[in-house]
Each structure stands twice: as C-alpha cells, then as structure tokens.
Design a protein that fits this description.
- By secondary structure, the protein is mainly alpha-helical.
- The chain contains 4 helices and no strands.
Length: 122
C-alpha cells in the first residue's frame, strides 16, 4: 500500500510539473504586418494616440504574464523535487523580470507616441 501511495504521489507531482512547465513557455511575439503598417503610416494625432493605447495594452499584458510567472515560481517551490533540481523557479522568475522590462519598454513607447500626438496635426 505504501508503494502505491508513493507512485501516486510521483505521478501527481509529474502532472503538476508538466502543467506548470507548459505555462512557462510564453514569450513576446513579433509585430504583425498590420502593426508595422500602422507605425509607418502614423501622421495624425489620432494615429499616435491609437499607437499609445496599443502600447499601453501591451504593457498591461506583459505585467499579467510577469505576475503569472511569479505565481508559477512559487508553485514550483511546492513541488517535491530534489534540492538540486530548482531551475524551474529561477526560470520563471527570470521570465517575470524580463516581462517587467518589456512592460516598461511598452510604457516608454506609449509615452513617446503621446508626445508625438501632441505635436501632430489633428
């Protein structure tokens, strides 16, 4: 009976680990062709305000991803793994820091387009 419990516990740990690992596989995507065209064509106040709003949404999304990865890092610390196998929480924390940096970059882009909007024709 003890062997079945250990086997079940290992299986449950492996399942949890695979689910958490699947969640760590996110990263930034390439800009769409439409987005590139919008940037190249931006001339008016409205164009730049729309781009600023887009970058604000991207920043918010990156912050959500960062928060999710911090949660995953904490989840990994609860998975019964050998002490030598603690790469996963470090990995998730690294992604969280990266996403926070990406969010800051998007916020900078949004601010730049707000400044361009002030200078642009209506």
């Amino acid at each position: 009976m003890n062997v079945n419990f250990k086997s079940s516990r290992r299986m449950a740990s492996a399942l949890l680990l695979s689910l958490v690992l699947a969640g760590c596989a996110s990263g930034p995507s390439a800009p769409s062709r439409e987005m590139l065209q919008r940037i190249e064509a931006a001339r008016t106040r409205g164009d730049h305000e729309a781009l600023a709003a887009h970058y604000d949404r991207e920043a918010a999304a990156a912050r959500v991803i960062a928060a999710d990865h911090l949660k995953m890092a904490r989840s990994y610390l609860m998975v019964p793994l050998p002490r030598t196998s603690r790469r996963a929480p470090i990995h998730c924390e690294s992604i969280a820091r990266s996403q926070e940096g990406i969010a800051a970059e998007y916020e900078g882009m949004a601010e730049e387009h707000r400044q361009l909007a002030k200078q642009a024709q209506p």
